[in-house]
Each structure stands twice: as structure tokens, then as C-alpha cells.
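Lab notebook, page 48
Experiment: co-folding of the full assembly
Goal: obtain a model of how the components sit together before planning crosslinking
Operator: M.T.
Materials (sequences as entered):
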Amino acid sequence: MRETDLLAHIADRSKGLTGAYPGVVVVGPGDDCAVVRVGEGDTLLTVDQLVEGRHFAPQTAVDLIARKAVARSISDIAAMGGTPRWGLATGLLPRGYGHADALFDAMARWGIEFGAPLVGGDVAMWDGGLVLTCTVGGVPHAVRGPVLRSGARTGDELWVTGRVGGSLASGRHLTFVPRVAEGGWLCDVLGTDLHAMIDVSDGVGRDAARLGAASGVAVEIDLSRVPLHQGVGDSVRAIGEGEDYELLFAAAPGASLAAATLQGTLLTRIGRFAVGSGCVSVDARGGRLEVSQRGWEH
Amino acid sequence: MRETDLLAHIADRSKGLTGAYPGVVVVGPGDDCAVVRVGEGDTLLTVDQLVEGRHFAPQTAVDLIARKAVARSISDIAAMGGTPRWGLATGLLPRGYGHADALFDAMARWGIEFGAPLVGGDVAMWDGGLVLTCTVGGVPHAVRGPVLRSGARTGDELWVTGRVGGSLASGRHLTFVPRVAEGGWLCDVLGTDLHAMIDVSDGVGRDAARLGAASGVAVEIDLSRVPLHQGVGDSVRAIGEGEDYELLFAAAPGASLAAATLQGTLLTRIGRFAVGSGCVSVDARGGRLEVSQRGWEH
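Observation: model returned without errors.
Model output:
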């Protein structure tokens, strides 16, 4: 398929966007720029790449590739406690690629599904592999504001949503639902007691270390408390794997999360922040292991 | 260089952004999302890819690659009559790529130079070629609003800024200055008489045809009027080449552009819009040639 036809197809399919999102999408795909009305206040912006052979295997179903391309960026919005509002997508396609329509249709669908209608983008072809990007804009929580990585304090508790481990082996890295609802709920419930947050893309160890480093404090993870997915037996390995896309957050000690579930999503206290630096895991016998570098680097 | 080091380097170098752009960059590189404050009203959004072997030759200087990656997206903002406000960049780098720092430093510099400080991005490495993207957000002209492709009317005049032709051969495709000032000035001067606009990325013929198609009218280009760069002899070939990044616009007939220069930038009336469809060039002898498909498709 030629690029012109593809772009025309995308523009045609997107004609309903301005009606479907009045006041947001002023001009969708098909012009030099998309126009969005974001009203007053802060806009959250993020962009991620999805690269063949690195973030997905070549034989992966097109719908799952599209889904992951969008979901990764949405997860960054969730990690700020925000709500996605719009997205832009790019696709660099292998010459002769046969699934371009299906791919961009699927990206558009997942954009809407996750609250970020794709209002523009760019397509090119070349002799290399498939590369997608997704830019997403969103708004922070109206009361709490954007939740940064840098707000954790000594004495804070480290919490995680859901379960971790085995994402690549199980295929969950292709089917996860970004934790937008949970991030918003944490802002609602904890308010200013929600001190810092990140999504787990490179592993609990490495991402907890990022919270600590950004905040100037040390992190300790209680290995025995880390909630693992069924079939995942090794906690040390699990916190060194990536692509969980759970939320990892610092909450003031004693924060009111006693119920420990959020509409079916598990919430687990798995550690604490302390004076110092680095990120260690502590096992049931008190064995300590530096885990800052154990995540998978994307 | 490892990605972590590179990202840390980018975050470190970007620390001054929030101070340099108060009220715009609330949170720059280094967190899950960048935060920008766009105030009330419309935001212009665009993203473009820059691909090794397609948009630049492998041996191109790093600074010129970076410049073009940013400038292409800025040119889209100019084509709406808008002003860039912020950018996001991604880089997919060949494993072992030796110029990552220089590349991202240069992109950041060009972002600032062109009015779009890069507030975030993503970096990955793989075994393929170099691929960059740049997302840019901007604001439309405060009075005229966004200038779309679709506003041209029968009887309108077709104008172009600057000169065209020979961009690839001369290297101008790497060194052009996006026409942001000119786009804004056209909005100032013409107001609602500025009916439609596009930037010339794929050739005057193909891009004029896009204005016509979006507006439901035909376009005629007077070949003898097309302003060519020095050393470019063939008008038909010149309007079939791409990468001029000039502004091509539809103005109400008799619009007050008699001075025909804008602070040193030539303005030339090169054609008209008429009832019908398609885009033809007309030579001095009245010979007509359909040129809608003669541009270079990116």
C-alpha cells in the first residue's frame, strides 16, 4: 500500500473524532498539525518507541503490537496520576509491509480504548524493521497535581499495584491494562500523602531505585512481601524483570490503604524509604542484595 | 554509551529548562512525563520521523541530522500559522552508535533555537539504522486561529514564500529555517483573507494539489512565475522535487501582498484556484501538465 493511500485511509477513518471528542479534537489527522484544546492548566506529555526485535517479536499479532505501542505511553501518564487526553503515533514500516492498515486501525482503536484518541502522526517506509512511537498528552489529577518521582521521604512506605514477574514469558507485556484508574484513585485517596510514583517498566528493583535516587533517599524492598504472579517462583528474579507496568509508589507512613485492594486491584506494601542511597532487597533471613541495576533496561 | 547514562546526561543538561521557560516547562526530562502549561485555547501538535537512508545520508553531520529532525516538525507548526512551544524527541540508535550525546545535545539546541524546547523523549538502541522523531506542540495565531489546508476558494491566488527547487542537491533540506515568522506575519497581514496554507515538503505540485483537494477546488500553477533557486533551471522538475519547506498558501484575490517581500523573504503569486479538481502547471505557451503526483512522497 502506498503512503498516500494509507494517510488518506487514516484521515477518513478519523473523521468522527472531532464529533466524538468535542472541545478536545479541533482538527484531527489529515492536516499539517492536529489541533487540540487542552483548556487551562498543565498538560502531561510522554512519548515511547516500540521496536521490532526489542519490544516485540517479529511474529507478534498486529493488534498486540499496536496495543503495546499505545499502552506503554499511557502507562507513563498513569505513573503521574494523570488522565490521558490525546495521542500522536508514528510508524516506520518495512518496505512491502502487508499489515499497515490493520496496524494503524488497531493503534487508533487502542488509543480510544485507553482514553487517548490519536489526533495525528506520521508514516514512512524503509528497508529496516518495524518501529512505532506513540506520544500521549494528558492532564494531572485536578487536586493532587502531577505525581513526580522525586517526592519520596525517609520513613515513607513503598507500595505496588497488582503482581509482578514473568511478564515477557507469559505475554502480559502485550496485554496489560495501564493503571490509569488506579493512579487517579491513589491521588483521590492519598492526596498529598502520595509522595512519589513510577510505573514498573524496567523491573521493581531498578524502578524503585529511580524513585529513591530522584528523591535522595534509600530504598529497601522486603522480598517476602512482593506479590508475584502465579507461576513466578523467584522473587529476586521477578524484581529484576521488566515490563510489569504496575505502579510503584511512595506513601506517607500509615497512609490509609488498609483495605489493600482497589476495585479488584491488589495494593501491597513491599518496602520502605530510608536515609541513604541505593536500593536493596531483604530476604526472610535478613540477606541483603543491591538490586538497583537488576532491571531490564529498555 | 549506556542508555541510562545518556538519559541522565539529557536530564542534567535540561535542568535549566524550567527556569528558562517559566510557565511553560513545569517538569522537563527525567520523570515519567514532561509537564507543560499551555494555558487556555488550542494547542497545535505534530510529529515527524527522520530516517537514515531516507531523509538523510548515513555520512551526514550529526548537527545537521538533529537540525532537520526538529526543523521538519517546526515547519508543520509554521504551516498552520502557529508558534511552536515545546517538543519531544525520540532516538532509535544503531548499537554502538558513537555520537548519541552530540546528537541529543544538538536536537536540544535546535529545539530552543526554533522555539520548541524539548521537554521529554525516549531513547532505544537496536541493530538497525538511525531513526529520530520529533513531536512539537504550539499555539495558533491569536487572532487568525489555525490555518488549515481546506479553506481555499475558487478565485483565490496561490502564493509561495522564498524560492524552490534543488533542495536535496544543494543541501538546503538540511539547513532550511522553518517559516514560522513568515507564517505569523501572513496571519497578521491577511487575517481571514489567508484562506489555506501548507509547507512544501513533497514538492510544490503535490502540495498545491493537497490544498486543492482539501478545499474541493482545482489549482493552476503558472510555471513561469515559480521563483527558483540559483542554479535551478527546470521549473517542471523544481515543482516536482521535495523538501523546500517553503509556505504555499491561498489568499483572497487582490490580497494586500503587493510589496511581495517580507523582511527579506520573497513572496510570489504563482497560480490560482479554480472550479474543478487536480493540479496543473501551465507553461508560457499554454501547455498544461498534471503535476499532482510529481512530488517526492515522504
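Interpretation: Chain B has a mean pLDDT of 87.
Next step: discuss with group before ordering constructs.
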